Amino acid sequence: MKITNGFDISASALTANRMRMDVISSNVANAETTRAAYVNGEYVPYKRKMVVMESNEQSFSQIFNNTLNGNDASSKFKGVNVTKIIEDSSPTKLVYNPSHPDANVDGYVEMPNVDIATEMVDMIAAVRAYESNVTALNATKSMFMKALEIGK
């Protein structure tokens, strides 16, 4: 087992959750953006973005079989990766506001599909995940420090 696996796992999770918080912040900032892109000759509103993460971990059976076969799989990087950022396919909201410059002929404005309450809940979850990984990183660091004190 590689001695820095704990650091690698926590670092990858910190990076992934930071990206998640950045995307959520972008969603909140663009919650009222009606002209995010120009498609087919007209402006379209901002679409909510979501982060897709994927684990790099092997299953217990894979690790067990590799160990039985004499393969050292512990040197492979472990943790989590952001694989992609996708757009939410939920429909946009129509809001009646005939004085808005982007209103259609009926007076409705197509608004982004961003729900502030959902974004705030997602942000709280991302912040908690980030904090728990900082705690895990500090615990790993503390274990290293205690191990170094044994030799004194």
Q: What report would you give on this structure?
A:
The chain has helices spanning 5-29, 60-68, 116-150; strands at residues 37-39, 42-44, 49-55, 80-87, 93-96, 108-111. By secondary structure, it is of the alpha+beta class. The protein has one domain. The chain has a two-stranded antiparallel sheet. Strands 3-4 form a two-stranded antiparallel ribbon. It has a two-stranded antiparallel sheet with strand order 5-6. A hairpin with a 2-residue loop joins β1 (37-39) and β2 (42-44). The longest helix has 35 residues, at 116-150. It is elongated and about 75 Å long. The mean pLDDT is 88.
Topology:
Elements: H1 5-29, E1 37-39, E2 42-44, E3 49-55, H2 60-68, E4 80-87, E5 93-96, E6 108-111, H3 116-150
Antiparallel strand pairs: 1-2, 3-4, 5-6
Task: Using the CA coordinates, give the radius of gyration.
Answer: 23 Å
How many helix segments? 3
Number of domains: 1
Question: Can you list the strand order of the major beta sheet?
Answer: 1-2
List low-pLDDT spans.
none
The number of distinct β-strands equals: 6
- Class derived from helix and strand content: alpha+beta
Provide the succession of SSEs: HEEEHEEEH
Main sheet: strands, sense, barrel: 2 strands, antiparallel
* Percent in strands: 15-25%
